[in-house]
Design brief:
By secondary structure, the chain is of the alpha+beta class. The chain has six helices and 20 strands. The protein has a domain of 163 residues: Sandwich (Immunoglobulin-like). A hairpin with an 8-residue loop joins strand 2 and strand 3. This is Multicopper oxidase domain-containing protein.
């Protein structure tokens, strides 16, 4: 089991989570019924072709502290099966039968890819290992200023990592902030197949908040993933019509799963810092219920205090990164965080679903309503 619990970052531990849910919550978990609906994204199961090929199933993204690894990390390419929301609750199941995942060192493959974290001034060596790959790839890092040959764009650098090859990029951590990385070979398809992730450079003297979380939004046209899995589906980027909307690769209610999803678990009085990244191709106006936040960074640039103001919705363009901060000063409860394009908060024809997660106060984890949400998400104590 992963530790800590919640979205990638610094949440509560699994032991704290289990203690907070209490025996009453566990009892309700065993007995409540989750809503089901026939309006799932796919009209028929998409699992058979992928399962017959024995693909690994993706895991949630992990934070990889490159400083603790001597300044180096290896990213492998791995075709995988991706469970967006595997249950029949709330418009599920929602599944992507084929993705192309990044796998850091000996960890599990994940979509989004691992959160690569380092410190300002600590240069990295990132090795793209495509020795077992079936198609060419590269890696492009946003934000930092690097040598021409390390830009990761094959058409301008002449460097492509073909199947059976490895290539090491030198990435200087010279621009602090939250950035993104992705494959830049046939970008229009490879990002849409899952080859994207967060790159975080902590400034020197970085002061963490009480709780810190990373969240990547993504819109998907599942026809591409089904076509790549060998199913009877036809896709063109010119006629892209997204039908799956995710936070850290999951759709609600799976987003609320404490280990497979990305709830923001807080305690009253906490200062909370959230790094929002848009890994998709559409704008997503993100809204938090019952809390006012300030945007403190944009694309790694620090926003002066004189230019900050309280807000409750923030629009992210494709590849844009916003870091927000707020105080968990509401009455303890469960409050939604979601895209405010309402059709992005759906699983097929079922509402709510999609690009929706929530702020969960630790103080209410022993309530019946929290236990019911855990049942929808598929969490078992």
């Amino acid at each position: 089991m992963s530790d800590p619990i919640g979205a990638p970052g610094t949440g509560v531990s699994r032991r704290e989570f289990l203690a907070a849910t209490g025996t009453a919550g566990a009892g309700v978990l065993a007995g409540c019924q989750a809503p089901t609906d026939q309006g799932s994204v796919q009209e028929q199961s998409t699992t058979s072709a992928a399962r017959q090929q024995n693909l690994p199933t993706t895991s949630p993204p992990e934070v990889v502290n490159v400083d603790e690894q001597g300044g180096s990390v290896t990213l492998k390419t791995q075709p995988a099966f991706h469970e967006v929301h595997p249950l029949e609750t709330m418009g599920g199941p929602v599944e992507l039968p084929r993705v192309w995942a990044f796998q850091a060192d000996d960890r599990d493959p994940s979509v989004p890819g691992p959160i690569i974290r380092t410190t300002e001034g600590e240069d990295m060596e990132v090795t793209l290992d495509n020795t077992e790959g079936m198609r060419a790839h590269t890696v492009h890092f946003h934000g930092v200023q690097k040598a021409w040959k390390d830009d990761g764009v094959p058409t301008t650098t002449g460097i492509t990592v073909d199947p059976g090859e490895k290539h090491t990029y030198s990435i200087p951590a010279n621009v602090p902030g939250t950035h993104v990385y992705h494959c830049h070979f046939q970008t229009h398809r490879h990002i849409d197949m899952g080859m994207y992730g967060i790159f975080r450079v902590d400034p020197k003297g970085y002061e963490p908040a009480d709780k810190e979380y990373f969240m990547t939004m993504k819109d998907w046209d599942s026809r591409l993933n089904r076509m790549m899995a060998g199913e009877d589906a036809s896709y063109s980027p010119r006629t892209r019509k997204p039908d799956v909307f995710t936070i850290n690769g999951k759709s609600a209610p799976r987003t609320l799963h404490p280990e497979k999803g990305s709830p923001l678990i807080v305690e009253q009085g906490d200062t909370v810092r959230v790094h929002w990244v848009n890994g998709g191709y559409m704008n997503h106006p993100l809204h938090i219920h019952n809390h006012r936040f300030q945007r403190v960074e944009k694309d790694g640039g620090v926003i002066p205090e004189s230019a900050r103001y309280d807000m409750d919705i923030c629009d992210l363009a494709p590849a844009e990164r916003h870091t927000i901060e707020f105080t968990a000063d509401s009455q303890p409860g469960i409050y939604l965080m979601h895209c405010h394009k309402v059709n992005h908060v759906m699983n097929g024809s079922f509402y709510p679903g999609g690009m929706l997660s929530g702020i969960v106060y630790k103080q209410v984890m022993d309530t019946d309503i929290f236990a019911q949400l855990m049942e929808y998400a598929g969490y078992e104590v």
